[in-house]
Amino acid sequence: MKSALQKSPIPENRAYLARSLNEPVFDPHWHFHSEHQLFLVQKGSGTRFIGDSVKPFKAGDITFTGPNLPHMWRSENEQEQEKNIAWSEGVVIYFHEDFLGENLLHKDEAIRLRQVFHKSLRGMEFTEQTALTLKEQMLDLIHMDGFEGILQLLKILDFISRTKEYTLLASPGYTNTLREADTERMFKVYAYVMKNFKRKMALSDLAQLTNMTPTSFSRYFKLHANKSFSEFVSEIRIGHACKLLIEQKMNVSQACYESGFQTLSNFNKQFKTITEHTPLAYKKEYEVY
């Protein structure tokens, strides 16, 4: 397994890096880095982890993450995709906060830029017309270089600093407490859960996987994920159920048992807690589109 803490992807002679991704799967490793990152999903779906936020991802999603905010995009059907049966496509843009020099952010003209950089520490997901416009701007940047590219990046940052069509992802006050050894350990936990969430999982299995006692594992997970292990598993299961309801048009009962829940009553309760909708209301809302 490669290191969870990536080195800077930006060459020393460049102010930013923008590139297209066309790979079997997006990088499924739980990691963080010192750069800001704008990421557009053009093709593919799965589960996205940003800080303590766990949500499904799909084509058209655009996120902005700040420095040292842990993240991971775990594609669906990973084994099939690794055989090149399916591909994941996207656009990623990396840049450092001071890519125009250290003094700019302290000027009055950069107040909105400072504000949006602060929001990025929790992760931002752009929605509605903003996501459509931002997609075109990011695709344009891919084909630019030199100072033209810097101007386009500034245009993008100015645009996202003005929009109100976004949601913040990680919880208020979320703090990255991970070290490199922790990212490897958390990756093992996430990989195990993604593979086994449809069946009942014993806490003792995860404790054994991480070489801890069950009590120690519970404390460890709560510290680094900012939620209990059972809450995390429920989020994974509900995220999967959402896709079954919308993409595969399953009924509520089917989605419940296909997502690893043992009773319909618990499924309905967890679904309402996590999505703020009943499963039926959620399904009807998306069937409108």
Automatic annotation (TrEMBL):
Molecular function GO terms recorded: DNA-binding transcription factor activity; sequence-specific DNA binding
Q: Does the keyword Electron transport apply?
A: no
Which intervals hold domain HTH araC/xylS-type? 187-285
Entry keyword set: DNA-binding, Transcription, Transcription regulation
Which Gene3D superfamilies does this UniProt record tie to the protein?
Homeodomain-like (1.10.10.60), Jelly Rolls (2.60.120.10)
Name the Pfam families on file: AraC_binding (PF02311), HTH_18 (PF12833)
Question: Does the keyword field hold Transcription?
Answer: yes
Put simply, this protein is called AraC-type DNA-binding protein
